[in-house]
């Protein structure tokens, strides 16, 4: 809950504990409103699920998309896409 409130305050007001973070930042009004909470919560849950699935795949030896891209880049001699 604290993380959700922190994200909403930073994106909705541009402050953290009342202190301005970035000069000239234009806050997103929706982040202060109730739909902003649902949006933030959904994105946070999606990120946590993605991290969990990625960790489980690596522990079980399954290849993930990022593993395939990294190996393909290493085989070409570069890790950067061309």
Structural commentary:
The protein is mainly alpha-helical and 82 residues long. The chain has one domain. 62% of the residues lie in helices and 5% in strands. The protein is built from three helices and two strands; from the N terminus they run H-E-E-H-H. The chain has helices spanning 2-13, 34-60, 65-76; strands spanning 15-16, 19-20. A two-stranded antiparallel sheet has the order 1-2. It is elongated.
**Number of DSSP E strands:** 2
Q: Major sheet, described briefly?
A: 2 strands, antiparallel
Count of all domains: 1
Q: What is the helix fraction of residues, given as a range?
A: 55-70%
Tell me the layout of helices and strands.
Elements: H1 2-13, E1 15-16, E2 19-20, H2 34-60, H3 65-76
Antiparallel strand pairs: 1-2
Considering the chains and any ligands shown, give keywords for the structure.
mainly alpha, 2 strands
